[in-house]
Design brief:
- This protein folds into two domains: 316 residues, 3-Layer(aba) Sandwich (Rossmann fold), CATH 3.40.50; 100 residues, no CATH class.
- The chain is 35% helix and 21% strand.
- It has 17 helices and 14 strands.
Length: 447
């Protein structure tokens, strides 16, 4: 009878009859993508943390801006023990050059009690049985061990409470296609802080007090484990603090002092703290989730900005660490259809809707890396990439040689910089054109 029960459980687990709704299981999706990707490719940067990192950095932007491959393996609602668990499994699949740990998961957590779901999702998604067996006693209390391995045991109540889910699972076709490239981005917040929410800050003040921040021995233990793991593999570590809105937290200098006391135990690691000093010119209200609750995240636009900030820091502080994959045809094929490829890389073959007009030319004291025409439905857009130099203006007056309705002539156009796109080596300028305007070349540039 015992073996019959075990057989039934194994069978139903394999078939997925009692699997919960996976529609929004971003953890399973990114791990499936990670395993598929690392079959024959290397990941250059592993990014760890909780919801502050998965909604804090756009890994597609970071990958394009650094010409490398960056995966976020963070998980919502977890502490640093989950980061340790994720890293251990990741290092069995690939050998990154850099590990980035978001500091919000270094907190006063002790071994979690009761709320196992986020950890169970990671446990479910990972494949290495022996590593999971070894890690299980540290991740879960003993009364959760069996359900950690079996969705059937975990969700057996579906027989009485959710028969529709079981019926759906019975009819669901098995997806055997390679998963779509998923680098762990979890874009949730399409709008930033609204006036009504900003008013709450004015009326009630900051929602978080840095004086209350503490670090538990439990967090210290697993931070040390992560650092030792990276040291043994000769992997560089970068600590990252993703910002909250500047009015959201008071006494941050006290929090920073407490955190710095712990982080400076690892002098080989660097720390990019985007909360202090706070960049008021770029981290405006539209970069943050529209909430006044304690746990505030970045908006989708904020994720993009932070990815560029991080790319710049990596470029400056780790100049020769990451491989340059910008000429690797396999890497190009993976990323050329992503939104920010054109802002960071040269236009390449097979990029529908883009045409490179000129490359690597010096005009009027400016080094033009590329002039690109982006074809849109209603109008076209010119993108000008100018190599960074001191005091680049926010607006350029660019004289073009153009064709329009059969006539050829020179015409000056004002091009505005896109401040949120901050490639480490060049600045992006843009202007929209009527469809009938055809650009031949650049005649001159005036700032």
């Amino acid at each position: 009878m015992f073996f019959m029960v075990v057989f039934v459980i194994i069978f139903t687990d394999k078939k997925g009859f009692f699997t919960a709704d996976q529609t929004n299981n971003h953890i399973r999706k990114k791990w499936a993508s990670f395993y598929d990707f690392t079959k024959n490719k290397e990941v250059d940067v592993i990014i760890l943390g909780n919801s502050h990192i998965i909604t804090g950095v756009d890994p597609f932007v970071l990958s394009n801006a650094t010409s490398s491959t960056c995966f976020i393996l963070g998980n919502s609602g977890t502490g640093i023990i989950d980061a340790w668990f994720q890293l251990g499994e990741a290092l069995k699949q690939t050998q990154p050059k850099l590990v980035i740990l978001e500091t919000f998961c270094i907190n006063d957590q002790v071994k979690h009690e009761g709320e196992d779901i986020p950890y169970l999702q990671s446990f479910d998604a990972q494949k290495n049985v022996f590593y999971k067996l070894k890690s299980m006693p540290q991740l879960f209390h003993s009364d959760s061990w069996v359900e950690a391995w079996s969705p059937t045991i975990r969700n057996h109540s579906f027989i009485f409470t959710d028969t529709a889910r079981i019926k759906h699972n019975l009819q669901r076709p098995r997806d055997r296609k390679s998963p779509k490239l998923d680098l762990g981005r979890f874009a949730r917040f399409g709008i930033g802080l609204q006036d009504s929410t900003l008013q709450k800050y004015e009326e009630s003040g900051a929602h978080v007090n840095g004086k209350e921040y503490q670090i538990s021995d439990f967090s210290r233990k697993y931070l040390r484990k992560i650092m030792n793991m990276c040291k043994a593999k000769d992997i560089q570590v970068l600590f990252l603090s993703v910002p909250m809105y500047y009015q959201h937290i008071s006494n941050y200098e006290i929090l920073k002092k407490t955190l710095n006391k712990e982080l400076k135990k690892y002098p080989e690691a660097k720390w990019l703290d985007l909360q202090m000093p706070y960049d008021t010119t770029i981290y405006t209200p539209d970069k943050f989730e529209n909430t006044y609750s304690a746990n505030q995240h970045l908006s989708n636009l904020g994720m993009m900005v932070t990815a560029y900030k991080l790319a710049g820091f990596i470029s400056e502080n780790y100049p020769n660490l990451l491989p340059d994959r910008s000429k690797d045809p396999v890497w190009i094929e993976d990323f050329k259809s992503t939104e920010h490829f054109v802002y960071n890389q040269y236009v390449t073959g097979g990029m529908k809707g883009y045409a490179s007009i000129l490359k690597d030319k010096k005009i009027g004291g400016f080094h033009i890396r590329e002039l690109v025409l982006q074809e849109n439905k209603e109008s076209n857009r010119l993108l000008l990439k100018i190599a960074r130099q001191k005091n680049l203006p926010s607006v350029l007056n660019v004289q073009f040689n153009v064709n329009m309705l059969g006539n050829q002539f020179n015409s000056a156009l004002q091009m505005n910089s896109i401040k949120e796109i901050m490639h480490p080596q060049h600045q992006i300028y843009m202007v929209d054109l009527k469809k009938e305007v055809k650009i031949n070349t650049i005649v001159g540039i005036m700032d």
